[in-house]
Design goal:
Chain A has about 90 residues and is mostly helical. Chain A has helices spanning about 1-25, 30-35, 45-60, 65-85. Chain A has two domains: about 1-40, no CATH class; about 45-90. Chain A contains four helices and no strands. Chain A is flat. Chain B is about 5% helix and about 50% strand. Chain B has one helix at about 1-20; strands at about 30-40, 55-75, 75-85, 115-125, 130-140, 150-160, 165-175, 185-195, 200-215, 225-240, 240-255, 260-275, 275-285, 350-360, 365-375, 385-400, 405-415, 425-435. In chain B, β4 (about 115-125) and β5 form a beta hairpin. The chains are: A mainly alpha (about 90), B mainly beta (about 425).
Protein backbone atom coordinates (compact mmCIF):
# COMPACT_ATOMS: atom_id res chain seq x y z
CA UNK A 1 0.00 0.00 0.00
CA UNK A 2 2.83 2.29 1.02
CA UNK A 3 4.69 1.52 -2.22
CA UNK A 4 1.62 2.33 -4.28
CA UNK A 5 1.18 5.61 -2.45
CA UNK A 6 4.86 6.56 -2.92
CA UNK A 7 4.83 5.72 -6.63
CA UNK A 8 1.62 7.72 -7.07
CA UNK A 9 3.17 10.75 -5.38
CA UNK A 10 6.36 10.35 -7.42
CA UNK A 11 4.30 10.15 -10.60
CA UNK A 12 2.38 13.27 -9.65
CA UNK A 13 5.58 15.17 -8.93
CA UNK A 14 7.04 14.11 -12.24
CA UNK A 15 4.00 15.24 -14.23
CA UNK A 16 3.95 18.65 -12.61
CA UNK A 17 7.69 19.00 -13.15
CA UNK A 18 7.56 18.22 -16.86
CA UNK A 19 6.17 21.56 -18.09
CA UNK A 20 8.80 23.45 -16.11
CA UNK A 21 11.51 21.37 -17.68
CA UNK A 22 9.97 21.72 -21.11
CA UNK A 23 9.86 25.50 -20.78
CA UNK A 24 13.57 25.93 -20.62
CA UNK A 25 16.32 23.82 -22.11
CA UNK A 26 20.03 24.51 -21.78
CA UNK A 27 20.07 26.37 -25.13
CA UNK A 28 17.17 28.72 -24.40
CA UNK A 29 17.68 32.10 -22.80
CA UNK A 30 15.21 33.55 -20.34
CA UNK A 31 14.03 36.56 -22.35
CA UNK A 32 11.92 37.77 -19.44
CA UNK A 33 14.98 38.16 -17.20
CA UNK A 34 17.24 39.25 -20.03
CA UNK A 35 15.10 41.72 -21.95
CA UNK A 36 11.73 42.03 -20.12
CA UNK A 37 10.10 40.17 -23.03
CA UNK A 38 7.69 37.20 -23.06
CA UNK A 39 7.12 37.35 -19.31
CA UNK A 40 4.28 35.16 -18.10
CA UNK A 41 2.37 38.05 -16.54
CA UNK A 42 3.13 40.59 -19.29
CA UNK A 43 0.33 43.05 -20.08
CA UNK A 44 -0.15 45.42 -23.01
CA UNK A 45 0.76 49.06 -22.72
CA UNK A 46 -1.99 51.56 -23.59
CA UNK A 47 -0.52 52.10 -27.05
CA UNK A 48 -0.30 48.34 -27.74
CA UNK A 49 -3.89 47.90 -26.57
CA UNK A 50 -5.13 50.70 -28.83
CA UNK A 51 -3.24 49.24 -31.82
CA UNK A 52 -4.60 45.74 -31.19
CA UNK A 53 -8.17 47.01 -30.78
CA UNK A 54 -7.95 49.04 -34.00
CA UNK A 55 -6.64 45.96 -35.82
CA UNK A 56 -9.46 43.77 -34.55
CA UNK A 57 -12.17 46.37 -35.29
CA UNK A 58 -10.89 46.59 -38.88
CA UNK A 59 -11.66 42.89 -39.34
CA UNK A 60 -15.33 43.93 -39.12
CA UNK A 61 -18.33 41.66 -39.47
CA UNK A 62 -16.31 38.98 -41.29
CA UNK A 63 -14.93 37.94 -37.91
CA UNK A 64 -17.02 39.64 -35.21
CA UNK A 65 -20.75 39.98 -34.62
CA UNK A 66 -22.25 43.50 -34.45
CA UNK A 67 -22.53 43.16 -30.67
CA UNK A 68 -18.88 42.11 -30.34
CA UNK A 69 -17.76 44.97 -32.58
CA UNK A 70 -19.61 47.44 -30.37
CA UNK A 71 -17.84 45.95 -27.33
CA UNK A 72 -14.45 46.39 -29.01
CA UNK A 73 -15.33 49.96 -29.98
CA UNK A 74 -16.27 50.74 -26.38
CA UNK A 75 -12.96 49.30 -25.17
CA UNK A 76 -11.12 51.43 -27.73
CA UNK A 77 -13.00 54.52 -26.53
CA UNK A 78 -12.09 53.66 -22.95
CA UNK A 79 -8.38 53.27 -23.82
CA UNK A 80 -8.41 56.55 -25.79
CA UNK A 81 -9.98 58.33 -22.81
CA UNK A 82 -7.35 56.97 -20.40
CA UNK A 83 -4.62 58.22 -22.77
CA UNK A 84 -6.30 61.63 -23.13
CA UNK A 85 -6.65 62.00 -19.36
CA UNK A 86 -3.03 61.07 -18.70
CA UNK A 87 -1.91 63.89 -21.02
CA UNK A 88 -4.61 66.38 -20.01
CA UNK A 89 -2.99 69.78 -19.45
CA UNK A 90 -3.47 72.04 -16.47
CA UNK A 91 -2.30 72.67 -12.94
CA UNK B 1 -0.15 15.04 17.03
CA UNK B 2 -3.52 13.79 15.91
CA UNK B 3 -4.86 17.31 16.08
CA UNK B 4 -1.94 18.62 13.98
CA UNK B 5 -2.63 16.10 11.21
CA UNK B 6 -6.31 17.01 11.15
CA UNK B 7 -5.46 20.68 11.21
CA UNK B 8 -3.02 20.28 8.31
CA UNK B 9 -5.61 18.36 6.30
CA UNK B 10 -8.23 21.05 6.91
CA UNK B 11 -5.72 23.81 6.07
CA UNK B 12 -4.70 22.03 2.87
CA UNK B 13 -8.34 21.57 1.87
CA UNK B 14 -8.99 25.23 2.67
CA UNK B 15 -6.02 26.40 0.61
CA UNK B 16 -7.15 24.22 -2.29
CA UNK B 17 -10.65 25.68 -2.07
CA UNK B 18 -9.30 29.23 -2.10
CA UNK B 19 -6.99 28.44 -5.01
CA UNK B 20 -9.79 26.98 -7.08
CA UNK B 21 -12.08 29.86 -6.14
CA UNK B 22 -9.70 32.53 -7.48
CA UNK B 23 -10.74 32.33 -11.15
CA UNK B 24 -14.36 32.96 -10.17
CA UNK B 25 -13.25 36.17 -8.43
CA UNK B 26 -10.98 37.20 -11.31
CA UNK B 27 -10.01 40.83 -11.12
CA UNK B 28 -8.31 42.61 -13.98
CA UNK B 29 -5.74 45.07 -12.67
CA UNK B 30 -5.07 47.82 -15.19
CA UNK B 31 -2.19 50.18 -14.61
CA UNK B 32 -1.44 53.24 -16.72
CA UNK B 33 0.79 56.23 -16.27
CA UNK B 34 2.66 59.16 -17.68
CA UNK B 35 5.99 60.78 -16.94
CA UNK B 36 6.48 64.25 -18.38
CA UNK B 37 9.48 66.46 -17.81
CA UNK B 38 10.25 69.77 -19.50
CA UNK B 39 12.82 72.50 -19.65
CA UNK B 40 11.35 75.98 -20.11
CA UNK B 41 13.15 79.14 -21.21
CA UNK B 42 10.81 82.12 -21.25
CA UNK B 43 10.34 85.79 -20.41
CA UNK B 44 6.63 85.08 -19.74
CA UNK B 45 6.31 81.70 -18.04
CA UNK B 46 6.41 81.01 -15.06
CA UNK B 47 5.52 84.46 -13.66
CA UNK B 48 2.93 85.16 -16.37
CA UNK B 49 3.60 88.90 -16.45
CA UNK B 50 3.55 91.21 -19.47
CA UNK B 51 6.09 93.89 -18.60
CA UNK B 52 8.97 96.09 -19.74
CA UNK B 53 12.41 94.47 -19.39
CA UNK B 54 10.78 91.10 -18.63
CA UNK B 55 13.39 88.83 -17.01
CA UNK B 56 14.19 85.52 -18.71
CA UNK B 57 13.40 82.55 -16.50
CA UNK B 58 14.66 79.02 -17.00
CA UNK B 59 13.47 76.01 -15.06
CA UNK B 60 12.84 72.28 -15.15
CA UNK B 61 9.39 70.94 -14.35
CA UNK B 62 8.17 67.40 -13.84
CA UNK B 63 4.88 65.47 -13.60
CA UNK B 64 3.98 61.85 -13.01
CA UNK B 65 0.45 60.54 -13.28
CA UNK B 66 -0.40 57.01 -12.18
CA UNK B 67 -3.70 55.33 -12.88
CA UNK B 68 -5.03 52.09 -11.45
CA UNK B 69 -8.33 50.50 -12.47
CA UNK B 70 -9.74 47.52 -10.58
CA UNK B 71 -11.99 45.78 -13.08
CA UNK B 72 -14.28 42.98 -11.95
CA UNK B 73 -15.89 42.92 -15.40
CA UNK B 74 -16.35 45.26 -18.37
CA UNK B 75 -19.38 46.57 -16.54
CA UNK B 76 -17.97 47.26 -13.09
CA UNK B 77 -14.72 48.97 -12.22
CA UNK B 78 -13.08 51.34 -9.78
CA UNK B 79 -11.04 54.02 -11.53
CA UNK B 80 -8.28 55.88 -9.68
CA UNK B 81 -5.65 58.40 -10.77
CA UNK B 82 -2.92 60.16 -8.82
CA UNK B 83 -0.51 62.97 -9.65
CA UNK B 84 2.95 63.87 -8.38
CA UNK B 85 4.38 67.22 -9.51
CA UNK B 86 7.59 69.12 -9.03
CA UNK B 87 6.56 72.61 -10.09
CA UNK B 88 10.27 73.27 -10.56
CA UNK B 89 13.33 71.21 -9.75
CA UNK B 90 15.08 72.52 -6.68
CA UNK B 91 12.04 74.11 -5.00
CA UNK B 92 11.98 72.40 -1.57
CA UNK B 93 12.66 69.19 0.30
CA UNK B 94 11.65 67.44 3.53
CA UNK B 95 8.38 69.37 3.34
CA UNK B 96 5.24 67.86 4.78
CA UNK B 97 2.94 70.85 5.22
CA UNK B 98 2.67 72.56 1.82
CA UNK B 99 3.57 69.61 -0.35
CA UNK B 100 1.61 70.20 -3.58
CA UNK B 101 4.11 70.53 -6.42
CA UNK B 102 6.98 70.54 -3.92
CA UNK B 103 9.84 68.21 -3.10
CA UNK B 104 12.03 68.95 -6.12
CA UNK B 105 15.08 70.03 -4.12
CA UNK B 106 18.10 68.15 -2.84
CA UNK B 107 16.93 65.41 -0.53
CA UNK B 108 13.37 65.19 -1.95
CA UNK B 109 11.28 63.36 0.68
CA UNK B 110 8.22 65.57 0.48
CA UNK B 111 4.56 64.61 0.77
CA UNK B 112 3.31 65.69 -2.66
CA UNK B 113 0.73 63.18 -3.81
CA UNK B 114 -2.42 64.63 -5.40
CA UNK B 115 -5.55 62.58 -5.84
CA UNK B 116 -7.23 63.37 -9.16
CA UNK B 117 -9.85 60.69 -9.69
CA UNK B 118 -11.62 58.14 -7.49
CA UNK B 119 -14.85 56.88 -9.02
CA UNK B 120 -16.99 53.85 -9.65
CA UNK B 121 -17.78 53.14 -13.31
CA UNK B 122 -20.80 50.87 -13.48
CA UNK B 123 -22.72 49.76 -16.58
CA UNK B 124 -26.07 47.97 -16.72
CA UNK B 125 -26.18 46.57 -20.29
CA UNK B 126 -29.82 45.43 -20.09
CA UNK B 127 -30.83 49.05 -19.36
CA UNK B 128 -28.21 50.53 -21.74
CA UNK B 129 -27.12 52.64 -18.78
CA UNK B 130 -23.73 53.72 -17.44
CA UNK B 131 -23.28 55.36 -14.04
CA UNK B 132 -20.18 57.14 -12.82
CA UNK B 133 -20.12 57.99 -9.11
CA UNK B 134 -17.35 59.94 -7.39
CA UNK B 135 -14.47 62.26 -8.27
CA UNK B 136 -14.26 62.07 -12.07
CA UNK B 137 -13.03 64.07 -15.07
CA UNK B 138 -15.83 65.95 -16.83
CA UNK B 139 -15.63 67.96 -20.06
CA UNK B 140 -18.46 70.10 -21.38
CA UNK B 141 -19.74 69.65 -24.96
CA UNK B 142 -18.36 73.06 -26.02
CA UNK B 143 -14.63 72.41 -26.47
CA UNK B 144 -14.01 73.02 -22.77
CA UNK B 145 -14.79 76.78 -22.74
CA UNK B 146 -17.27 76.41 -19.84
CA UNK B 147 -15.82 73.61 -17.73
CA UNK B 148 -13.25 70.88 -18.13
CA UNK B 149 -12.06 69.59 -14.76
CA UNK B 150 -12.13 66.89 -12.12
CA UNK B 151 -15.31 67.10 -10.06
CA UNK B 152 -17.28 64.97 -7.59
CA UNK B 153 -20.74 63.88 -8.65
CA UNK B 154 -22.98 61.39 -10.39
CA UNK B 155 -23.18 61.13 -14.17
CA UNK B 156 -25.75 58.91 -15.87
CA UNK B 157 -25.35 58.02 -19.54
CA UNK B 158 -28.05 56.27 -21.54
CA UNK B 159 -27.11 54.82 -24.91
CA UNK B 160 -29.40 54.42 -27.89
CA UNK B 161 -28.49 53.00 -31.31
CA UNK B 162 -27.74 56.42 -32.81
CA UNK B 163 -27.76 58.66 -29.76
CA UNK B 164 -26.62 59.14 -26.20
CA UNK B 165 -28.08 61.22 -23.39
CA UNK B 166 -26.41 62.41 -20.20
CA UNK B 167 -27.81 63.59 -16.88
CA UNK B 168 -25.57 64.62 -14.05
CA UNK B 169 -25.19 66.32 -10.71
CA UNK B 170 -21.86 67.64 -9.48
CA UNK B 171 -21.09 69.23 -6.12
CA UNK B 172 -18.36 71.72 -6.93
CA UNK B 173 -18.09 73.20 -3.44
CA UNK B 174 -19.57 72.95 0.02
CA UNK B 175 -17.71 75.40 2.21
CA UNK B 176 -19.19 73.93 5.40
CA UNK B 177 -19.39 77.36 7.02
CA UNK B 178 -22.88 76.58 8.35
CA UNK B 179 -24.66 73.24 7.89
CA UNK B 180 -23.26 70.89 5.23
CA UNK B 181 -25.36 71.11 2.10
CA UNK B 182 -26.33 74.78 2.65
CA UNK B 183 -23.50 76.91 1.23
CA UNK B 184 -22.89 74.88 -1.89
CA UNK B 185 -21.97 75.39 -5.51
CA UNK B 186 -23.60 72.69 -7.64
CA UNK B 187 -23.83 71.97 -11.35
CA UNK B 188 -26.62 70.05 -13.06
CA UNK B 189 -26.17 68.58 -16.54
CA UNK B 190 -28.59 67.56 -19.28
CA UNK B 191 -26.85 66.71 -22.53
CA UNK B 192 -27.69 64.82 -25.70
CA UNK B 193 -25.89 63.77 -28.87
CA UNK B 194 -27.42 62.31 -32.00
CA UNK B 195 -25.68 60.71 -34.98
CA UNK B 196 -27.65 61.99 -37.96
CA UNK B 197 -25.44 59.93 -40.26
CA UNK B 198 -22.02 58.25 -40.21
CA UNK B 199 -20.39 61.64 -40.73
CA UNK B 200 -22.68 64.05 -38.91
CA UNK B 201 -23.25 64.49 -35.19
CA UNK B 202 -25.53 67.07 -33.58
CA UNK B 203 -26.01 67.83 -29.90
CA UNK B 204 -27.74 70.08 -27.41
CA UNK B 205 -26.98 70.71 -23.74
CA UNK B 206 -28.32 72.53 -20.70
CA UNK B 207 -26.12 73.26 -17.67
CA UNK B 208 -27.30 74.89 -14.47
CA UNK B 209 -24.98 76.27 -11.81
CA UNK B 210 -26.35 77.27 -8.42
CA UNK B 211 -23.74 78.92 -6.21
CA UNK B 212 -25.26 79.58 -2.83
CA UNK B 213 -23.21 82.02 -0.79
CA UNK B 214 -19.96 80.09 -1.25
CA UNK B 215 -16.91 81.75 0.32
CA UNK B 216 -14.04 82.33 -2.10
CA UNK B 217 -10.45 82.74 -0.99
CA UNK B 218 -8.97 86.15 -1.89
CA UNK B 219 -12.41 87.64 -2.63
CA UNK B 220 -14.36 89.71 -0.10
CA UNK B 221 -17.86 88.76 -1.29
CA UNK B 222 -18.92 85.13 -1.43
CA UNK B 223 -20.23 83.79 -4.73
CA UNK B 224 -24.02 83.79 -4.76
CA UNK B 225 -25.47 83.34 -8.25
CA UNK B 226 -27.36 81.20 -10.69
CA UNK B 227 -26.22 80.50 -14.24
CA UNK B 228 -28.25 78.72 -16.90
CA UNK B 229 -26.37 77.70 -20.02
CA UNK B 230 -28.07 76.48 -23.19
CA UNK B 231 -26.14 75.40 -26.23
CA UNK B 232 -26.11 73.47 -29.46
CA UNK B 233 -23.14 71.83 -31.15
CA UNK B 234 -22.46 69.94 -34.35
CA UNK B 235 -19.70 68.17 -36.25
CA UNK B 236 -19.75 66.97 -39.83
CA UNK B 237 -17.54 65.74 -42.63
CA UNK B 238 -17.97 67.12 -46.14
CA UNK B 239 -15.62 65.26 -48.43
CA UNK B 240 -12.15 65.82 -47.02
CA UNK B 241 -13.29 68.73 -44.86
CA UNK B 242 -14.17 68.29 -41.17
CA UNK B 243 -16.22 71.10 -39.64
CA UNK B 244 -17.42 71.49 -36.06
CA UNK B 245 -18.73 74.30 -33.92
CA UNK B 246 -21.21 75.49 -31.31
CA UNK B 247 -23.46 78.26 -30.09
CA UNK B 248 -23.97 78.81 -26.35
CA UNK B 249 -26.04 81.29 -24.35
CA UNK B 250 -25.89 82.00 -20.62
CA UNK B 251 -28.43 83.74 -18.43
CA UNK B 252 -29.00 84.02 -14.69
CA UNK B 253 -28.59 86.40 -11.78
CA UNK B 254 -25.89 87.53 -9.41
CA UNK B 255 -27.72 87.62 -6.07
CA UNK B 256 -25.21 90.01 -4.49
CA UNK B 257 -25.05 92.68 -7.18
CA UNK B 258 -28.54 91.88 -8.55
CA UNK B 259 -27.10 91.99 -12.07
CA UNK B 260 -28.80 89.76 -14.65
CA UNK B 261 -26.39 87.89 -16.86
CA UNK B 262 -26.80 87.58 -20.63
CA UNK B 263 -23.70 86.24 -22.37
CA UNK B 264 -22.97 84.15 -25.41
CA UNK B 265 -20.22 82.27 -27.21
CA UNK B 266 -19.86 81.03 -30.79
CA UNK B 267 -17.25 78.84 -32.40
CA UNK B 268 -16.43 77.20 -35.69
CA UNK B 269 -13.47 74.96 -36.40
CA UNK B 270 -12.34 73.12 -39.51
CA UNK B 271 -9.61 70.71 -40.53
CA UNK B 272 -8.64 69.13 -43.82
CA UNK B 273 -5.98 66.79 -45.18
CA UNK B 274 -3.57 68.80 -47.29
CA UNK B 275 -0.71 66.97 -49.02
CA UNK B 276 0.94 64.82 -46.33
CA UNK B 277 -0.39 66.97 -43.50
CA UNK B 278 -3.52 68.41 -41.95
CA UNK B 279 -4.54 72.06 -42.06
CA UNK B 280 -6.63 73.42 -39.16
CA UNK B 281 -8.46 76.60 -38.26
CA UNK B 282 -10.49 77.82 -35.26
CA UNK B 283 -12.58 80.94 -34.69
CA UNK B 284 -14.07 81.78 -31.29
CA UNK B 285 -16.09 84.73 -30.07
CA UNK B 286 -17.14 85.12 -26.42
CA UNK B 287 -18.99 88.19 -25.18
CA UNK B 288 -17.62 90.49 -22.47
CA UNK B 289 -18.34 93.63 -20.47
CA UNK B 290 -17.01 97.13 -20.92
CA UNK B 291 -17.73 97.99 -17.27
CA UNK B 292 -16.67 94.83 -15.37
CA UNK B 293 -20.25 94.20 -14.27
CA UNK B 294 -20.69 90.49 -15.19
CA UNK B 295 -23.68 91.50 -17.29
CA UNK B 296 -22.38 90.13 -20.58
CA UNK B 297 -19.31 88.22 -19.39
CA UNK B 298 -19.31 84.47 -19.80
CA UNK B 299 -19.34 82.55 -16.50
CA UNK B 300 -16.44 80.14 -16.11
CA UNK B 301 -15.97 78.54 -12.70
CA UNK B 302 -12.82 79.18 -10.71
CA UNK B 303 -11.64 76.88 -7.99
CA UNK B 304 -12.62 78.15 -4.56
CA UNK B 305 -9.01 78.44 -3.47
CA UNK B 306 -7.61 80.20 -6.51
CA UNK B 307 -10.46 82.58 -7.29
CA UNK B 308 -10.45 84.92 -9.09
CA UNK B 309 -8.87 84.87 -12.56
CA UNK B 310 -6.16 82.53 -11.31
CA UNK B 311 -7.24 78.96 -11.87
CA UNK B 312 -10.02 78.50 -14.36
CA UNK B 313 -11.59 75.06 -14.30
CA UNK B 314 -12.07 75.27 -18.06
CA UNK B 315 -9.75 75.27 -21.02
CA UNK B 316 -9.88 75.96 -24.76
CA UNK B 317 -6.91 74.25 -26.39
CA UNK B 318 -8.11 73.67 -29.96
CA UNK B 319 -6.32 76.75 -31.29
CA UNK B 320 -2.91 75.30 -30.26
CA UNK B 321 -1.62 78.55 -28.74
CA UNK B 322 1.23 78.66 -26.19
CA UNK B 323 1.16 82.22 -24.80
CA UNK B 324 -2.01 83.87 -26.15
CA UNK B 325 -4.03 80.88 -24.92
CA UNK B 326 -3.13 78.08 -22.52
CA UNK B 327 -0.38 75.72 -23.65
CA UNK B 328 -1.36 72.04 -23.98
CA UNK B 329 2.07 71.19 -22.50
CA UNK B 330 1.69 73.41 -19.43
CA UNK B 331 1.61 71.73 -16.05
CA UNK B 332 1.87 73.55 -12.70
CA UNK B 333 3.38 76.65 -14.33
CA UNK B 334 0.39 77.41 -16.50
CA UNK B 335 0.06 81.00 -17.73
CA UNK B 336 -1.56 82.64 -20.72
CA UNK B 337 -2.57 86.12 -21.84
CA UNK B 338 -6.13 84.80 -22.29
CA UNK B 339 -6.31 82.28 -19.46
CA UNK B 340 -9.97 81.43 -19.99
CA UNK B 341 -12.76 82.75 -22.21
CA UNK B 342 -14.17 84.94 -19.43
CA UNK B 343 -10.85 86.77 -19.77
CA UNK B 344 -11.29 89.04 -16.74
CA UNK B 345 -14.89 89.74 -17.77
CA UNK B 346 -13.72 91.10 -21.15
CA UNK B 347 -14.54 88.10 -23.36
CA UNK B 348 -12.34 87.18 -26.29
CA UNK B 349 -12.05 87.01 -30.05
CA UNK B 350 -9.69 84.20 -31.02
CA UNK B 351 -8.60 83.18 -34.51
CA UNK B 352 -5.96 80.66 -35.54
CA UNK B 353 -4.60 78.58 -38.40
CA UNK B 354 -2.30 75.61 -38.09
CA UNK B 355 -0.68 72.84 -40.05
CA UNK B 356 0.42 69.39 -38.81
CA UNK B 357 2.91 67.50 -40.93
CA UNK B 358 4.27 63.96 -40.63
CA UNK B 359 7.82 63.84 -42.01
CA UNK B 360 8.46 60.18 -41.24
CA UNK B 361 6.85 57.52 -39.06
CA UNK B 362 8.95 58.91 -36.19
CA UNK B 363 9.23 62.62 -36.92
CA UNK B 364 6.33 65.06 -37.01
CA UNK B 365 5.93 68.81 -36.89
CA UNK B 366 3.34 71.49 -36.37
CA UNK B 367 3.15 75.24 -37.04
CA UNK B 368 0.49 77.65 -35.79
CA UNK B 369 -0.40 81.31 -36.06
CA UNK B 370 -3.17 83.03 -34.14
CA UNK B 371 -4.52 86.31 -32.88
CA UNK B 372 -6.52 87.41 -29.85
CA UNK B 373 -8.48 90.50 -28.91
CA UNK B 374 -10.76 91.31 -26.00
CA UNK B 375 -14.41 91.50 -27.01
CA UNK B 376 -14.85 94.51 -24.68
CA UNK B 377 -12.24 96.55 -22.83
CA UNK B 378 -13.54 96.83 -19.27
CA UNK B 379 -10.86 99.21 -18.05
CA UNK B 380 -11.04 101.56 -21.00
CA UNK B 381 -7.48 102.85 -20.81
CA UNK B 382 -6.09 100.69 -23.58
CA UNK B 383 -5.39 102.04 -27.04
CA UNK B 384 -6.92 99.02 -28.73
CA UNK B 385 -8.74 95.75 -28.01
CA UNK B 386 -6.01 93.88 -29.89
CA UNK B 387 -3.96 91.65 -27.54
CA UNK B 388 -1.46 90.24 -29.99
CA UNK B 389 -0.44 87.78 -32.69
CA UNK B 390 1.29 84.50 -31.89
CA UNK B 391 3.43 82.25 -34.02
CA UNK B 392 4.64 78.89 -32.73
CA UNK B 393 6.13 75.68 -34.03
CA UNK B 394 6.66 72.21 -32.64
CA UNK B 395 8.82 69.25 -33.61
CA UNK B 396 8.20 65.80 -32.16
CA UNK B 397 10.30 62.64 -32.37
CA UNK B 398 8.74 59.29 -31.45
CA UNK B 399 11.69 57.41 -29.96
CA UNK B 400 9.52 54.37 -29.23
CA UNK B 401 5.76 53.79 -29.04
CA UNK B 402 5.83 55.01 -25.45
CA UNK B 403 8.55 57.64 -25.49
CA UNK B 404 8.26 61.03 -27.22
CA UNK B 405 10.77 63.84 -27.38
CA UNK B 406 9.59 67.26 -28.51
CA UNK B 407 10.50 70.92 -28.73
CA UNK B 408 8.10 73.86 -28.97
CA UNK B 409 8.84 77.55 -29.42
CA UNK B 410 6.40 80.48 -29.40
CA UNK B 411 6.61 84.25 -29.87
CA UNK B 412 3.89 86.88 -29.44
CA UNK B 413 3.87 90.28 -31.15
CA UNK B 414 1.97 92.28 -28.55
CA UNK B 415 -0.98 94.36 -29.74
CA UNK B 416 -1.85 97.94 -28.81
CA UNK B 417 -3.86 96.75 -25.80
CA UNK B 418 -0.47 96.64 -24.05
CA UNK B 419 0.98 99.77 -25.68
CA UNK B 420 0.86 101.77 -22.45
CA UNK B 421 3.14 99.24 -20.74
CA UNK B 422 5.88 99.52 -23.37
CA UNK B 423 6.27 95.81 -22.64
CA UNK B 424 8.63 93.26 -24.20
CA UNK B 425 7.11 90.77 -26.62
CA UNK B 426 6.79 87.45 -24.73
CA UNK B 427 8.44 84.24 -25.90
CA UNK B 428 8.59 80.68 -24.64
CA UNK B 429 10.77 77.68 -25.58
CA UNK B 430 10.09 74.21 -24.16
CA UNK B 431 11.96 70.92 -24.50
CA UNK B 432 9.92 67.92 -23.41
CA UNK B 433 10.28 64.23 -22.73
CA UNK B 434 7.10 62.22 -22.41
CA UNK B 435 6.78 58.56 -21.44
CA UNK B 436 3.29 57.10 -21.46
CA UNK B 437 2.24 53.53 -20.77
Amino acid sequence: MKKIAISLIAGLLLTTAIPAMAEMTKEEKDQCLLASKNCANEVDSLQQRIRKLNKEIKKGTKVYSAEELKKLELKLKEADEILKNLEKPGK
Amino acid sequence: MKFNKKFLAVAAAGALTVATAVPALALENQFSGAFISLYDLSNFNAAGNIQKDAPTANFFEQRVRLGYTAKVSDDLKLVTKFEFDYSNWGNSSYDSTVGRGQGGALGADTVNMETKNLYLDWSIPSAKLNVKIGMQPYDDSFKGIFTSADMAGILLTHYYAQASTYAGFFRWNDDGSTTLGKNTRDMFVLDGKYNVSKDTLIGAAYYFVNSDNVKMTNIVSPEDLTVHMLGVNAATKIGALNVDGFLAYQFGEDNITNVDRSAFAANVGASMKLNAGTARTELLYVSGDNNNSNEHSFYTPYSQKFAQFNLAESGFYNNEMVILGRDKNAMTNDNAIVYDVNNRNQGVIFGSVGYDYTFTSKLSGSANAGFAAVAEDNVGIHESNYLGTEINCELGYKFTDNLNLSARAAYVFLGDYFKGLDADDPYDVKLLVKYIF
